[in-house]
Every structure is written in structure tokens, then in C-alpha cells.
Design a protein that fits this description.
Strand order of the largest sheet of chain B: 1-2-3-6
Structural class of chain B: alpha+beta
Oligomer: heterodimer
Order of helices and strands of chain B: EEEEEEEEEEEEEEEEEEEEHHHE
Largest interface: A-B, 56 and 68 residues
Strand order of the largest sheet of chain A: 4-5-6-9
Number of strands of chain A: 9
Largest sheet of chain B: 4 strands, antiparallel
Largest sheet of chain A: 4 strands, antiparallel
Number of helices of chain B: 3
Distance between the termini of chain B: 29 Å
Helix content of chain B: 10-25%
Number of helices of chain A: 1
Chain lengths: 110, 335
């Protein structure tokens, strides 16, 4: 976990927050850094997809989780997590997940 | 469509379980040669697993049935997410079924084995604390993950929120499993990502339709969130020059004319479809084929009008930014 120096302001905020009763609709869980858009190659991951739904799965069997993206239309694509000299980096370009017939996977929708 | 990679039939190969807006889970079996074609997950009686609302492929209609909820008049709830999970730790995978409407979560037990499953066809509501698990602003898909590192499976799930307009957007929620292996008990929903209030001038987060998974993305030993969804924002407007104002006025007139011709064009096409399929069952293959044939005849003209409209809109939007709605996948790195 990244080391974090808490100033007086943060401590004061925590003390005040502890008086609040956690309930659905309030943020009561862990803190996250400002969200960052992920890329697959040069493109944004999930761009131009209808309701992109990411799932982490080791598709290529290298022991590192890749990302699989489902969508409203029932299609699945994936982007491999790239491993460079300095370890795991970003994702490669997004490509269709194929079945054994070599066709892009497509779940039935209505 | 959320998906789960799991060895559903226990043959040593990873399969893919997913539920779509047809209201039922599908399974795509893996093998040494790769994946086969997806098929519906069936219950012990040979019927589609579902909650209540479903698309009937034979009747080509959305329908409801209370057979899995034990009700004559069930609430309209469409199963759009499914997870395989050995709820009772008896060695076979049971099903968790998530609904779009009301964001309810049910379990359907497997009284068979993984090799020969026998799903009961009866859904049992899953509780979150003392009340049924519910994400009222519509649930995308739940995921099972050991969020608190105590060895059992907790639930994280996203919500849709208002996916097109200015209403509150989606968020991500957590329900901690305080039970035991084989006897899970899920707690009240907690907020991991607050519902979006929208109103930003640039894409800063997923605002609606939040699909979530958890992984240690940065390898620092804790779980981060990977979240797909739509960002909705409106770029700031700028003061236009007199020349730009004049150009904008011209563009708007041209767009209005194009839109008028577009409406007239669609009326012509639709009238021809109506006349050509008169007396036919509109849902029949023959009627659909006739309609497709007619629409194909006009496809080139439709594309031309659409392209003109698109070009005008692009130029107008460059002068007066309009609200944007685009899908991305985001990393929420845990601090």
C-alpha cells in the first residue's frame, strides 16, 4: 500500500467522518486515487463498445491477468497485459476472443 | 453483459458463463480445442434458468413467468448477470442470478453435480443484512471477490444509474460476507464508488452503467477496481466571433432542412414496408424478409443523408459543444 502522510487537515476530516453513520449512498469504504482511463495499445480500452464490462482473466496463460471486455451485444474481446523489461505494464491492443471455429465469440441477445 | 470464467462442468477446461438481456444465463464450454458456441443454462426440468422477464425466441416477444419465483404475478425482473458459486460447499456450482430491475440477487441451487447439474428452477432471494440484496438504480453485474482477505467470497456490484439524462449516475457497492464457507451471509451494502453526480466538463470518471471487477492491478498487495462505463460530460462553451455566429446560424438551418428530408425519407420507406407487408404477420420471417429487402433498396440514400447530418453536427459541435457520452474502462487504484 502506498505510504501516505496525513496532515492535520486529514486527521480532522477523519475525526469528523467517524461521527457519520455509514449507509448506502455514502462513501464508507477504502480510498482510491483519481480514476484513470485505461488504454489498449493506442486506443482507449472499451471505446465504441456498448456498456463495456471488464473482467480480469489470464487469457494467454502467462500467469498475468489480461482484461476481457463484454458488451451489451454479447461480444467478448480481450487485451493482453504486456510484460516488459520493467515488469507488467499496460495492455496490448484489443482483439476479439475467438471460439474453436475461429469466429468471434458472441452470446445470444434478444 | 458481465461474464465469468469458470470451470462450469468440472472437466478441467475454463468455460464462460454470462447472462444477456434475453433474461437467461448462457454457458460457453471450453475444451482443448477452444470454446464452443454459447448455449442456455437449463434447469433440471429442461427449462431456461431465469428470474421472471425473458425474451421468448419462439414468440419473438418479451414475456414474464412466475415459475422461478413461485408467484402468479411476479415483479418484472430480467436476469442480466449470472455467477457460478458453490453456495453450500457441497462440491457443485450453484447459480447466483442478478436482476436488472430492482438490482436483486437470487441463488438457484444445484442438486446434481458439475458434470450433471440439476438446477432447481427455484430462486431464493439473497439478503444483504436484514433486507434483500437490492441496487434500486438497476444493477449491472455482481462479482465474487475476497475483498477483505478473510478467505471467503464477498460481493461487489455496479449500478446503471441514469444512463442517458441528467439524473444520478451509477456507483459501485460492496457486501462483505460475514458467514462461513458453505453458509455465506452477506452484510449491508457499502459504497466503494459513490453514485456519480455528473455535470463535469471533461471525462473524469465512469458516470453510468458501471461494470466492475477487482484485481491487484499495480501489484502492491491490495485490490484495485477496474470499472467499465459511460462518461457523460459537457465541454465548456466559448464566446463565438461574429463570423462564427453567422456560420452557426447557417449550419443550423442546413441541419433543420436535412432533418426534414430525413423524416420524409423514413416516411416513404415505412409506408412502402407497411404496404408490402399488408395482411402478413409482422413478426413472421416472410414479413421481416420483405421489410429488410425494402430497407436495403434505400440503404445508400439513407447513408448519404446520415453522412450529411453527421458532418453538419460535427461542425456545430465544434462551435457549440454538446453533452458527450462515451464508454471507457477506468482504473481505480486503491490507496
Amino acid at each position: 500500500m502506498r505510504t501516505r502522510i496525513m496532515g492535520l487537515f486529514t486527521l480532522a476530516s477523519m475525526a469528523w467522518a467517524s461521527l457519520l453513520v455509514p449507509a448506502m449512498g455514502q462513501s464508507s469504504g477504502p480510498e482510491f486515487a483519481a480514476p484513470q482511463r485505461l488504454k489498449a495499445g493506442d486506443a482507449y480500452l472499451g471505446a465504441r463498445r456498448l456498456y463495456p464490462s471488464p473482467v480480469i482473466q489470464d487469457v494467454d496463460g502467462d500467469g498475468v491477468g489480461d482484461v476481457v471486455i463484454g458488451d451489451l451485444m454479447g461480444k467478448l474481446t480481450y487485451a493482453n497485459r504486456e510484460i516488459g523489461d520493467e515488469g507488467v505494464t499496460g495492455f496490448g491492443r484489443e482483439r476479439p476472443l475467438k471460439d474453436r471455429a475461429g469466429e468471434g465469440v458472441k452470446f445470444h441477445n434478444w | 453483459m458481465g461474464s465469468q470464467f469458470v470451470d462450469f462442468n468440472g472437466d478441467g477446461h475454463t468455460d464462460v458463463l454470462a447472462a444477456t438481456f434475453d433474461g437467461s444465463p448462457h454457458i460457453m464450454y471450453g475444451s482443448a480445442e477452444g470454446y464452443g458456441k454459447p448455449e442456455h443454462v437449463m434447469d433440471a426440468a429442461g427449462k431456461r434458468v431465469l428470474i421472471s422477464s425473458f425474451w421468448n425466441y419462439e414468440d419473438r416477444a418479451h414475456q414474464e413467468t412466475g415459475r422461478s419465483l413461485g408467484m402468479d404475478n411476479p415483479p418484472k425482473e430480467r436476469c442480466i448477470s449470472a455467477l457460478a458459486f458453490d453456495w453450500d460447499n457441497d462440491g457443485d456450482l450453484d447459480l447466483l442470478l442478478g436482476s436488472y430491475e430492482n438490482g436483486h440477487l437470487y441463488r438457484q441451487m444445484n442438486e446434481g453435480t458439475n458434470e450433471k447439474p440439476a438446477f432447481t428452477g427455484k430462486n431464493i432471494p439473497i439478503m444483504a443484512g436484514d433486507t434483500p440484496f437490492a441496487i434500486k438504480e438497476k444493477m449491472t453485474a455482481p462479482r465474487l471477490v475476497d475483498w477483505d482477505g478473510d478467505g471467503d467470497q464477498d460481493i461487489i456490484a455496479g449500478s446503471f444509474g441514469d444512463t442517458y439524462r441528467d439524473g444520478p449516475g451509477g456507483g459501485v457497492f460492496l457486501s462483505i460476507n460475514t458467514g462461513k464457507i458453505g453458509k455465506p451471509s452477506f452484510g449491508n451494502l457499502q459504497v466503494l464508488i459513490p453514485r456519480s453526480k455528473k455535470g463535469q466538463a471533461s471525462p473524469t470518471r465512469p458516470d453510468a452503467g458501471l461494470y466492475v471487477d477487482a484485481t491487484d492491478h499495480d501489484g502492491d498487495g491490495d485490490l484495485d477496481l477496474i470499472v467499465g462505463g459511460y462518461s457523460m460530460w459537457t465541454p465548456p462553451a466559448r464566446k463565438l466571433t461574429a463570423k462564427e455566429e453567422a456560420r452557426l446560424s447557417t449550419l443550423r438551418d442546413e441541419l433543420a432542412a436535412i432533418q426534414k428530408s430525413q423524416r420524409e425519407f423514413f416516411k416513404v420507406v415505412n409506408d412502402e414496408v407497411t404496404a408490402s407487408t399488408k395482411g402478413m404477420d409482422r413478426k413472421s420471417d416472410a414479413a421481416r424478409a420483405k421489410a429488410t429487402e425494402i430497407r436495403k433498396k434505400y440503404a445508400q440514400k439513407r447513408r448519404k443523408i446520415s453522412k450529411q447530418s453527421s458532418q453538419l453536427n460535427d461542425e456545430i459541435n465544434a462551435l457549440v459543444p454538446k453533452p458527450q457520452r462515451k464508454p471507457f474502462v477506468w482504473l481505480y487504484e486503491r490507496q
